[in-house]
Amino acid sequence: MNDLLQIIGDRGRALVDWRRPRRPSGRALGELADLLLSVPGEASGVARARELLDGYRALDYAGRTSFFRLLVETYSADRSDLGGAAARFLEDPSEVNAKAILRSAEPRRLELFRRLNFAPGGTADLVAMRLDLLERLPNHPEFWTLDDDLKTLFQSWFNRGFLLLRRIDWQTSAAVLEKIIKYEAVHAIHDWDDLRRRIDLPDRRLYAFFHPRLGDDPLIFVEVALTGDIPSAIQPILDRDRTPIEPGAATTAVFYSISNCQKGLQGISFGNFLIKQVVEDLQREFRDLKTFVTLSPVPGFAGWLERERSAEVSSVLPAETRPVLDRLDEDGWWQDAAARDELSRVLPQVAAWYLTRARDRRGRLADPVARFHLGNGARLERVNFAGDLSPKALRTAHGMMVNYLYRLPDIEKNHEAFVNDRKVAASSAVTKLARGLPAPKALVPSDA
Amino acid sequence: MNDLLQIIGDRGRALVDWRRPRRPSGRALGELADLLLSVPGEASGVARARELLDGYRALDYAGRTSFFRLLVETYSADRSDLGGAAARFLEDPSEVNAKAILRSAEPRRLELFRRLNFAPGGTADLVAMRLDLLERLPNHPEFWTLDDDLKTLFQSWFNRGFLLLRRIDWQTSAAVLEKIIKYEAVHAIHDWDDLRRRIDLPDRRLYAFFHPRLGDDPLIFVEVALTGDIPSAIQPILDRDRTPIEPGAATTAVFYSISNCQKGLQGISFGNFLIKQVVEDLQREFRDLKTFVTLSPVPGFAGWLERERSAEVSSVLPAETRPVLDRLDEDGWWQDAAARDELSRVLPQVAAWYLTRARDRRGRLADPVARFHLGNGARLERVNFAGDLSPKALRTAHGMMVNYLYRLPDIEKNHEAFVNDRKVAASSAVTKLARGLPAPKALVPSDA
Amino acid sequence: MNDLLQIIGDRGRALVDWRRPRRPSGRALGELADLLLSVPGEASGVARARELLDGYRALDYAGRTSFFRLLVETYSADRSDLGGAAARFLEDPSEVNAKAILRSAEPRRLELFRRLNFAPGGTADLVAMRLDLLERLPNHPEFWTLDDDLKTLFQSWFNRGFLLLRRIDWQTSAAVLEKIIKYEAVHAIHDWDDLRRRIDLPDRRLYAFFHPRLGDDPLIFVEVALTGDIPSAIQPILDRDRTPIEPGAATTAVFYSISNCQKGLQGISFGNFLIKQVVEDLQREFRDLKTFVTLSPVPGFAGWLERERSAEVSSVLPAETRPVLDRLDEDGWWQDAAARDELSRVLPQVAAWYLTRARDRRGRLADPVARFHLGNGARLERVNFAGDLSPKALRTAHGMMVNYLYRLPDIEKNHEAFVNDRKVAASSAVTKLARGLPAPKALVPSDA
Amino acid sequence: MNDLLQIIGDRGRALVDWRRPRRPSGRALGELADLLLSVPGEASGVARARELLDGYRALDYAGRTSFFRLLVETYSADRSDLGGAAARFLEDPSEVNAKAILRSAEPRRLELFRRLNFAPGGTADLVAMRLDLLERLPNHPEFWTLDDDLKTLFQSWFNRGFLLLRRIDWQTSAAVLEKIIKYEAVHAIHDWDDLRRRIDLPDRRLYAFFHPRLGDDPLIFVEVALTGDIPSAIQPILDRDRTPIEPGAATTAVFYSISNCQKGLQGISFGNFLIKQVVEDLQREFRDLKTFVTLSPVPGFAGWLERERSAEVSSVLPAETRPVLDRLDEDGWWQDAAARDELSRVLPQVAAWYLTRARDRRGRLADPVARFHLGNGARLERVNFAGDLSPKALRTAHGMMVNYLYRLPDIEKNHEAFVNDRKVAASSAVTKLARGLPAPKALVPSDA
After folding, report:
1. pLDDT for C380
2. In this complex, do A173 and C171 lie within 8 Å of one another by their Cβ atoms?
3. Interface pTM (ipTM) of the complex?
4. Residue of C168, C169, C170 to mutate, testing the A interface (most A Cβ within 10 Å of its Cβ)
5. Rounded to whole angstroms, how far apart are CA atoms C108 and C110?
6. CA-CA to B102 of 20 to 30 Å: which in A119, B187, C291, D73?
7. Is residue B357 included in any domain, yes or no?
8. Is residue D357 located within the same domain as residue D242?
9. Domain limits at C14?
10. Mean pLDDT across the stretch D173-184?
11. Residues of chain C with pLDDT under 70
12. What distance in Å separates the CA atoms of residue D438 and residue D448, rounded to the nearest whole number?
C-alpha cells in the first residue's frame, strides 16, 4: 500500500492522465478508497477524493456495478469487531459500551463518502452516484444497505437548515431557468415563452429550494398562481392569452405544480418545508391572501380504477356505475356531451372514494400526491371533473384534478391525525361524494 | 402529550411570551424536545425548533446543566432495544442485523439536534450549546457522551466540502472585520489601523474559512506576509512603519498567525485544509513564490522547561546548562547583552530538543503548535532565538519562535511518517541543535 | 403660474389620476415643463419630472408631435437675450462676454431635459423620446435643432467613461438575454438554443456595453468566435452541429456580429470603444491570440452594383464584366456551379472596388460597415465570395462578406490616415483585386 | 503635430516611463491635450486620456498652475470664430445661426474634459483637478472661467438621476466606512466605536449618495436618529452610554449631521435631494414617523454677533442686552449658573433675529446652514440654548443649535416663498423670539 501511495504522491498530476487511458476498474478505485481512508486528518484528501470521483465517472455500467459491490462487500462494518462490541454490551450495558457499538456498527463506507465530499463538486457527484445505485437496485437488491447509507448521509447534509429558498423570476440566470424547464414534471414547460408566462407575470410565482453545495441546481420547486378563487381546471391557469390580475387583489394562492429535481435525493423530503415557507412568505407580501390551495393531479386514479373495473367483484363500484364507467373506454369521450354528462355524475364519487379510502399493500393511502399533501396537514377540499384534459391527465386520471387546502391553524392537527390515526382530512363535500358509493367490505388488509 | 400539543398549536405565538416570564426549566424543554421528535416529517418543526432554542437561551447556568443532564439520561439509545439488537446480531450476523444495531445504537438526541437545526440560526445555536457543554465537562465528566454526539454531528456538517475560502481585505464588511479583531489569538490586533496593516497592504493577506450557515462568522483564519526570505522574528512583520514590498517580487509566503474562531467547534479540524488551500491559491497568483513557511509560537516551551529545571534530575538538561538557564529568572534578561549572548547558545538547543522529542503522557509531541504543523506534513525548519519579545511570548516561550516549512512534494510523506511512525521531520540544522543535548534516557513511556 | 403651482402642490398624487382620463395635450405638458424649470434647486423636481414623463407617454402620435413643436418654439434660446449678448461681445470680446454668449445661446430645453432626468427611469424615457423624434424628422425637418440638443446631451451622459463592459454568458439573467435576442441585427438569433450556442460554448463570447442608468438594457454588443484561422464564411461559425475548439488553442478572435441596441442613441458612437476594449480583454485572457479580425457584411453592395449596372455608362464596370454580372439576375445562381465559378472571378474585384473607392454624395466611403471599421483604424483584409448565402445577404450583398483586420500597432496610423487623408487601409490582395477593374474617371464629386 | 503623434504612437507604453523622470511641464501636457482633441472618434483616446491625467498628477504646484493657465489661454472658445458667428446671428437671428453661436461659444477645454473622462478613474481625477483649481482661485481670479466650465460639466454628470442612495451600516465595507469617518464635518467621529454607535444601533441610520463612476467614495451623507421627540441638544444623541429605543416606536426622525464629501464638487447641490429621498424611504419603512426635523449648528452666529457687539451702534442689539452679552467673554460662562441663566433669556432672541433677518452683502440670509434648509423648504422650528457645548460649537455659535422642520406638504410653498419673495418660514415661537429685539433700521443694503 505504501508503495502505491508513494507512486501517487510522486507523480502528482500525472495521475489524471493515467486515469483516462486505462479506465479504472472498480477494484482500482477500491485502492484509492483505501488511501483516502488511511490517513486521518490529511489535507491531500481533497485531491485524492477528486481523483476517485473522476475515476468513478470514467467507469462504464459494469464498472460502476463492480464498484458498488466492492463498497457493499468490503466497506461494511467489520462483523467481528461489531460482534465483540455487542457481546461486551450485553455483559455490561454501559454508555461506554453503547457508544462502542455505535462506532463499530457504522459502515466504513460512510466515512469514505464524507471524504469524497471534500472534493470540489463532491456533493453533486455523490448525488449522481446514488442515482446510478437506484437504477441498479431492482436487479441488485443486495445493494439496499449502500442505499441506506447514502440516504442517511443526505438526510444529514440536506437538513432543512441548510436549504435556501429563492424566488425564480425573469432576472434569474438562464443556467437556472433551463433547469426549471428540464425538471418540471407535472405540467411540461414547452419553451422559454411558456416559462416566462409562469415567472414573469405579476400574478405568477415560482420558488425553489437550493443547497449551497449544489450551486445553480435546484432541489425542488413549486409554481404558484395568484387568483380570485379556487380553480377547478388547469388550462385557464396555463392559458397563454389570459389577462393577469393585480396580485394585491388576489385572495387565493394556488400551488399548481410541484417538482422534485434530484432523483438521487429520492426519499429526502423537502416539499412540506417548501410549501410552508412559501405560504409564510406570500402572507407577508400580500395581506389579502386568505386561501392557500393546490390544483393537483391524481396520478394513480386511472390505474386503480382499471383494476377495480376488471375485478370480477368490486367491493367499491356499485353495479349500476359499471355501464357509465364503460364510456371511459370510448375514444374522445370528453368531447361527447352525453358521455361527459353521465360521467360527471359518477366519476367524482369514485375519485373521492379512491382518494380517501383506497390503500396500497402497505396500508398507505393509494394515491401518492394525496399521501404527500394529506401527510403535510392539508385537507382534501374538492375533486374536479375534467380538470385537466391533456393526454397525460386523461390517461392517468381520466381528467380528474384535486384541490388540497392548506389552512395553517389546522395543519398540525390534520398531520397528527393522518400520521397517528390514519384519518384523512376532507371537506364535507368530498366526504359526501365518497359516501355516494357503498362502503367497501374488506378492500385492503388493515383498512378501518 | 397530545393535549400539550393542542395547547401549543392553538396558542401559536403566545408561546413566545409564555417563555419569557416563566424561564423554562430544563424539564419543560424536554417536553418541547419530545414534541419535536414526535412527528416525523412535519414542517412546523421549524417553528418548534426555534422555540426550543429560544427556551434554551433563556435558561440560566443551572438550567442549562439540567437540560444537558436530561439529554444524557433520557435521549440516549434505548438500552433494551439495543440489547435485543445486539443479541439478534450475535445469533445471526447478517447485514440486516448489523444495520438494525446501528439504528438502535444511535442516541435519540442526535435526531433532536438535526431537527433543532431546522430553525433559522439553528447551527450557530448548536455550536454555542456545545461551548456551554465544554465548560461543564470538567465538573460533569458524565456529559462526555453528549459531547461525543455533537462532535460527530459537526464533523458531518462542517465537512471540508461545505467550507468556503474567502480573502479578507479592506473591501470586507466591518461586521466580519470586527470578528477578525476579536478572534485573533496569536498576535493581538490592537485596533482598526493595526488590522488594516494586515489586510490592506500589497504584501499582506488574510484568508478565512466560512460555513454557509454561519454567515459572517469565520471558522478559522490565517494571516500571511509575502517576504524576500524566511523571517526569524515577528516584530519586523508587525512593524507599523515598515515599507511594503512589491508582492510580485516576493519569494516567500509566511503564515505568521493562525486562529480558530469557534470554541464550540473544538476538535473539528480545518487548519490543514486552510493552509493547503491558501498555498495553492497563492501559487496560482504569484508564480515566483517558492517558499511557504510559518513563523510560529512555541506555547508549551517555558512550562516544560520549568518542569525540567525544577526536577531533581533532568534526563534532558546537562548540568553545565543549568547556570546559563538560571539567567532566565533574571528580570529583563533579554536586555542584558551578556545574558542574551549566553542564552543564545543554549536555549535554541533546548528548544530544538523540546520540539522534536518532548512528549506528553499520551505519547503525543508535547508542543501543540508543533503537533499541528508536523501533523500537517510540514518540516521543523528553524528555531529562532529572541523571535518574539512580547510579554506573552517571553512568559510562555522565553521569546523563542519556530519556522515550519511546507514543501508540497514532501507533505504527504512527512504526514505519513508522523502519523504512522511518529517521526518528526526536521531540517538538519534543527536536528543537529537537538543533538547538542545528551539523549534522554527514559523521558516518556514509549518514546523511541 | 403660482396658482397652478398651488393646485398641483395641494393635490399631490391626485395629479396622476387626473392625467389618465384627460390625456394631456402637448400644451399642458408645457405648463408642467415651466414648473419644472421655474424653481432652481428644488427637490420636488423628482416627482414633477416623473409626472411630465408619464404625461408624455400618455400622449398619442399627434400629441407628441405637438409637444416637440412646443419645445422647438418656446424652449429655444431667447433670441433678444442672445442678440444683446452677441452685440456686447462684438463690442468687447472679453472672456466674460464670451461666457455670457454661451449662456444665452443654450436652449432652455437643455435644462428641461436635465431636470427630466431627475425622475427614476428618466434617462430611458429621454432615449425613447429621441426615438419618437427621429421618426418625425423626415416630415418635420424643423425639429433638427431639438435632435441636436438631445444628441449633445446624450454625448455627455453616455461618455465612454460611464459605460460598463460586461461579458454575457449563460449565467446572465433571462431579462438581459432576451434583449440580446431582440437586438441582434446582423445574423438573427432564432431561439434560445441558438443564443446558447453563441454564449455558452468555450470558443464563443459575447460582450456588451451597459450604462448604469439603463439597467439591464444593453447599448451595443459584439459576438466573438475564437478560431484557428480567419474565416471566409459565416455558416461554419453559426453551424449548430460544429465541434467547439479549445479556446486556449485559438489564434484568432473573429468579431462576427456587432449590433447597436438603442435607436434613440443614434449617432452616439460606442462601437470603436467596444472593439478596442474587447481586444484588450481577450489578449489578457488568451496569450496565444494573435489575430483580431471581423467577418462583416457588405450591406450597400447590391444596391450600389444595381445602380452601376443600370447606368448607361459605368465608369467602374468594364464592358466584359457585364454578361457575367447578369448571371446575378438568375434565380438561385449560387447553386449553379457554372454561374458560381464565373462570378467568383468577377464579383470579388467589383466588391473590392466598391469597398475601397465608392463614395456617397457627401464624399464618405459608400459602405457604412466599411466606414465604421476603417474609421476605427482597421484594415480591409479580404473579400469573401459566397461568404453568406442567407437570403438577406444574397439580397444586399450577393453573398459577399469581408474581413477587417484590427492590428493594434497600426490602428492609430490607419485611423489618422482615414480621417485626415481619406486613405483606405487595405491588404495588398484587396488592393490588387480592386485594380483588376479600371480606375473610375469622376465617380463622385470630390473623390481623389 | 503629426510627428509627435507618430512618436507617441510608436513608443506606446514607453511614454509612461518617459513621463516619470522628466516631470512634464504644463506645456507638454498641452501637446497631449491637442492630441486628445485632434482625432474625433478615436478609441485610443482612453489610453491617451490616462496618460494626460497621469502627467497632470506628476506635476508640482507650479506645474499645475501652468497647466490651468494653458487651459484658460489656449483652450477657450476661438474669439474670431465666435465674433463671426455673433455677427451672422445679428444679421439673421435664425435657429441655425443661434446654434452656430452655441457651438462657437463652447470653450474647447470642455471637449477636452469630456475626453479625459474616457480614462479609467477619469471622473475622480477631474474632481480632484477642480479642487486644485479652487485652491488657486483666490490668487488667480482669471481662472474663474475654467472653474465655470468644470462646474457646468459636473452639473451634467452628477445629475440627480445618476446618483444612488445607499444605506451605510455595519455590513458596509471598511473602505467606505473609513471615508465616512474622514468626511464627517459636523460632529467628528472619533473612532470605529463611535462610528458603530451611529450606524449599528436600531435607532440610528446613515444614508449616502454615490455616483457609479466614483465607486466607494460617497458624495454626501446624512446621519439620522430616530427619537420620541424633537431634541434640543446634541450630546444626548451622541452619548455613548444611552439606551437605544425600538425604532418602530419612534415618532421623529432627526437629521443631526449632513456632510459634503467632495470639495471638488463644491457648488453642485445634492443635499436637498438627499433629505427628501431619505424622508420618503423612512416614511415607507416606519409608518409611525410623523416628524422630520434637523438638529443643526449655527456656524455664522458668533462671528456675526461679535461684529454687532463691536459696532459702535448696533441696529440690532438693544442697549440693555449689552451687559448680558458681555458675559459671553467670561471663560467657562456655561458652567456658571448665573451667567447661563441670564444668557438663556437673551441669546435665543438674538439668535432668532440672526437666523431670520441677518443677511450678507449679496442680500442672502447670513447663516449658510439656515440658507440651505430654508432654501430646501424647511421651517425654522426652534432655537436651542446650550444645545452643543463642544469647544467648536461654543466658539462658532455660543452653544446654540437649531431645529429645522421638514413638513412635506409645506416644503414646496416654503421653498417658493423663500426663493421668490425671500420670506423665511419660521414657527410662531421663533418669530416671537426674534421680535423680542427691536426691528433693525437699515441693516443690510436691500433687506425688506
Report:
1. 97
2. yes
3. 0.86
4. C170
5. 5
6. A119
7. yes
8. no
9. 2-157
10. 97
11. 1-27, 39-44, 438-448
12. 15
Is residue B28 located within the same domain as residue B112? yes
Name the pLDDT band for A25 (thresholds 50, 70, 90).
low
Q: What is the DSSP string of B360-420?
A: -TTSSBS-HHHHHHHHTT-EEEEEETTS--SHHHHHHHTT-EEEEE--HHHHHHHHHHHHH
Taken as a whole, chain D contains a residue count of 448
CA dist list (Å): D410 to B7, C99, C207, D415: 53, 37, 49, 8
Q: Which of C93, C376, C413 sits opposite D9 (nearest CB)?
A: C413
**How many Cβ pairs within 8 Å bridge chains B and D?**
30
Instruction: Judge if C365 and C219 occupy the same domain.
Output: no
Average pLDDT rounded to a whole number, residues D255-276: 92
CB contact under 8 A, A173 and C173: yes
Cβ–Cβ under 8 Å, residues A355 and A380: yes
Q: Output the domain CATH number for residue D361.
A: 3.40.630.150
Chain A residues with CB-CB distance to B107 below 8 A: 102
Residue B222, beta-bridge partner list = B207, B258
**Are D427 and D329 in the same domain?**
yes
Q: What is the CATH number for B42?
A: 1.20.140.90
> Which member of D140, D296, D315, D344 is catalytic?
D296
Q: Distance between alpha carbon D240 and the CA centroid of its chain, in Å?
A: 29
Residues of C in contact with A172 (CB under 8 A): 173-174
Q: How confident is the model at residue A42 (pLDDT cuts 50, 70, 90)?
A: low
Q: Is B326 exposed, middle or buried (0-12, 13-18, 19+ CB in 10 A)?
A: exposed
d(C-alpha A119, C-alpha A18), whole Å: 19
Contact A197, A180 (CB under 8 A): no
Supply the residues of A annotated as catalytic: 296, 373
Cβ contact (<8 Å) for B161 and A411? no
Q: Which amino acid is at C360?
A: D
Kindly list the catalytic residues of C. 296, 373
Do B314 and B286 lie in one domain? The reply is: no
- The answer on A186 and A142 residing in a single domain is no
Please answer yes or no on whether D41 and C213 come within 8 Å at the CB atom: no
Q: Is residue C101 part of a domain?
A: yes
Give the residue on C whose Cα is nearest the Cα of A191. C192
Give the number of domains in chain A: 3
Q: Does the pTM of the predicted model rise above 0.95? A: no
For the packed helices A144-157 and A122-136, what is the interaxial angle rounded to 10 degrees?
Answer: 150
C-alpha cell at position D406: 421638514
* Complete DSSP assignment for C168-208: --TTSBHHHHHHHHHH--SS---SHHHHHHHHSSTTEEEEE
Is there a domain that residue C442 lies in? no
- Mark which residues 22-51 of B lie under 8 Å from A by CB: 39-46
Q: Which residues contact D342 (CB under 8 A, 6 or more apart)?
A: D324, D327
Residue C440 falls within a domain, yes or no?
A: no
- C98, C114, C276 ranked by CB distance to D77: nearest: C98
Note whether C226 and C250 are within 8 A (CB): yes
Inter-residue contact C102 to C89 (CB < 8 Å):
no
Which of D95, D123, D157 marks a domain boundary? D157
B113 and B171 within one domain: no
Q: For C313, how many CA atoms within 13 A lie in the half-sphere containing its CB?
A: 5
A267 with A345, same domain: the answer is no
| Residues in chain B closer than 8 A to A106 (CB atoms) | 102
Q: Kind of pairing, strands B401-405 and B379-384?
A: antiparallel
CATH of the domain at A173: 3.40.630.180
Q: Which residue has the cell 393585480?
A: A246
**Which residues are CB-contacts of C329 (< 8 A; sequence separation ≥ 6)?**
none
pLDDT, residue D270, reads 87
Judge whether A162 and B212 are in contact, CB under 8 Å.
yes
Q: What would the mean pLDDT of A391-410 be, rounded to a whole number?
A: 95
